[in-house]
Design brief:
about 55% strand, 22 strands, 16-stranded antiparallel beta barrel, mainly beta, about 375 residues
Length: about 375
C-alpha cells in the first residue's frame, strides 16, 4: 500500500484583509517551506501548481521493489465578491515500478466550492473524509504510517473518497478563536468491487486549540453499507461506523501526536481484497514523535497498534509495530529519507487469510518538489 506520508499545506486566503477558512490540502510529500509555482494571476483569479517526485524503494523479506511516484496538483481561487471566493483543487498521482506501456495512476483529489468570510466553505467532489482530520496527526512518517484503519481509499469516510460534500468552519464563525468544525455528507457509490462501495453517509469533526501549539480533534462517521456488501457478509450489519480522537503538540522543533480510534463493520481484514470481509470492530492506537534539527535532520519514531475483534475471525492484532526513520532536508526542494518498520506481531498460521502486518520492512528515497 502507498501511505499518505503527508504534512498539510494550510492555505490561508485573505480577501480585503479578512482571513477565510484555511483549506487543508494533504500532499503526499513531506512539505515544509517548499514554494508552489504561480502559473496564473489575473483579474482576481489565481492558480498555483504543486508537484513532486518521490523516487523510493522498499525492502522486505521477499525482495525489494520500486515504489516511486509523482504527484501533481493545482489549486485555484477566484473572487466572486469582496467576501466570497470560489476555489478548486485537483491532485493526480502516477506510480512507478512499471514499464512505459503500463497505466498506473489516478485522481486522488478533485473538488470545488465557495467560501465566505466568517461563514465557512462548502465544496463537493473527491476529497478526504472527516475521519482523516484525526488520522493526519500521526500519518506523517517518511513511509510506514496510515496503514491500518485508514489504509484503503474509497472505504467509506476514513480516507479519500468520491461524492464528498464538505462544509468547514474556522474559529466558529469568527467568534471563538481556535474552534473549528466540519460537516460532511457522502453520496452512495455502487457498481464497484465491494471494498470500494459505500451507501449514503454523514460525518463531522471538531477541533479546538487549547493553548499555543496544543490542539485536540475528534471525528465521527456513520454510513449505510451497500446491498452487495451485506450479501457477501451474511452476518454483516447495515451500517459502517467509525470515530476517533487525536491530540497534537507542536513547537519550533518538536512534533508530538497521538490518536485513538474505533471502527465497526468498516475495516477490510481479508488478505485478498477480492474476498470481502470487514471486522466487527477494530481498536487502534498511534503515537508519533518527531524533532526538527536546525541542520535539516528530522528523525521520526512512532508506535502503532490495531486490534481486531470479530465473531468469525476471533480477536487478533492486525498490526503492532514500531516505526523509526529519518528525513534530511538538503534544500527547501530536495530531501532524502529512510524508514524502517519493526513488527511486534508473530504470524499465526490460523490467520493466514487475514491482513496482518507481521514482517519487518525498510524503505528509502529521495524527494524533489516544487
Amino acid at each position: 500500500s502507498l501511505p499518505n506520508n503527508a504534512y498539510c499545506i494550510l492555505l490561508e486566503i485573505k480577501v480585503n484583509k479578512a482571513k477565510l477558512l484555511a483549506v487543508m490540502i494533504p500532499i503526499v510529500l513531506f512539505i515544509d517551506h517548499a514554494q508552489a509555482i504561480e502559473i496564473y494571476n489575473k483579474n482576481g483569479t489565481k492558480v498555483d501548481l504543486y508537484g513532486g517526485m518521490n523516487s523510493r524503494r522498499e525492502f522486505n523479506s521477499d525482495g525489494n521493489y520500486d515504489k516511486s511516484l509523482v504527484d501533481l496538483g493545482f489549486y485555484g481561487e477566484s473572487k466572486v465578491t469582496s467576501d466570497i471566493t470560489g476555489y478548486g483543487f485537483w491532485q493526480y498521482r502516477i506510480t512507478g515500478g512499471e514499464n512505459e506501456w503500463s497505466s498506473n495512476g489516478g485522481v486522488r483529489q478533485q473538488f470545488a466550492g465557495l467560501k465566505m468570510v466568517n461563514v465557512g466553505s462548502l465544496d463537493y467532489g473527491r476529497n478526504y473524509g472527516v475521519l482523516y482530520d484525526v488520522e493526519r496527526y500521526t500519518d506523517i512518517a517518511p513511509y510506514f504510517s496510515g496503514d491500518t484503519w485508514t489504509n484503503a481509499s474509497d472505504n467509506f469516510m476514513v480516507s479519500r473518497g468520491d461524492g464528498m460534500l464538505t462544509y468547514r468552519n474556522e474559529d466558529f464563525f469568527g467568534k471563538l478563536s481556535g474552534l473549528d468544525f466540519g460537516l460532511q455528507y457522502q453520496a452512495k457509490r455502487e457498481g464497484y468491487d465491494p471494498d470500494k462501495e459505500n451507501g449514503e453517509g454523514y460525518g463531522y469533526s471538531l477541533s479546538y486549540q487549547i493553548a499555543q501549539g496544543l490542539t485536540l480533534t475528534g471525528a465521527y462517521s456513520n454510513s449505510r453499507r451497500t446491498q452487495k456488501q451485506n450479501t457477501l457478509e451474511s452476518e454483516g450489519e447495515k451500517y459502517a461506523e467509525a470515530w476517533g480522537i487525536g491530540g497534537l503538540y507542536t513547537s519550533d522543533h518538536l512534533y508530538l501526536a497521538s490518536v485513538y480510534s474505533e471502527t465497526r463493520n468498516l475495516t477490510p481484514i481479508n488478505k485478498s481484497w477480492a474476498d470481502y470481509k470487514t471486522a466487527d470492530k477494530t481498536q487502534n492506537m498511534e503515537f508519533v514523535l518527531q524533532y526538527q534539527f536546525d541542520n535539516g535532520l528530522r528523525p521520526s519514531i512512532s508506535y502503532v497498534q490495531s486490534k481486531v475483534k470479530d465473531k468469525t475471525a476471533g480477536n487478533f492484532d492486525m498490526a503492532e509495530y514500531i516505526q523509526a526513520g529519518v528525513l534530511y532536508k538538503l534544500t527547501a526542494n530536495v530531501q532524502l529519507w529512510f524508514d524502517h518498520r519493526f513488527s511486534l506481531v508473530n504470524e499465526d498460521s490460523e490467520l493466514v487469510n487475514y491482513r496482518i502486518i507481521d514482517d519487518d520492512r525498510s524503505a528509502a528515497g529521495v524527494i524533489f518538489m516544487f
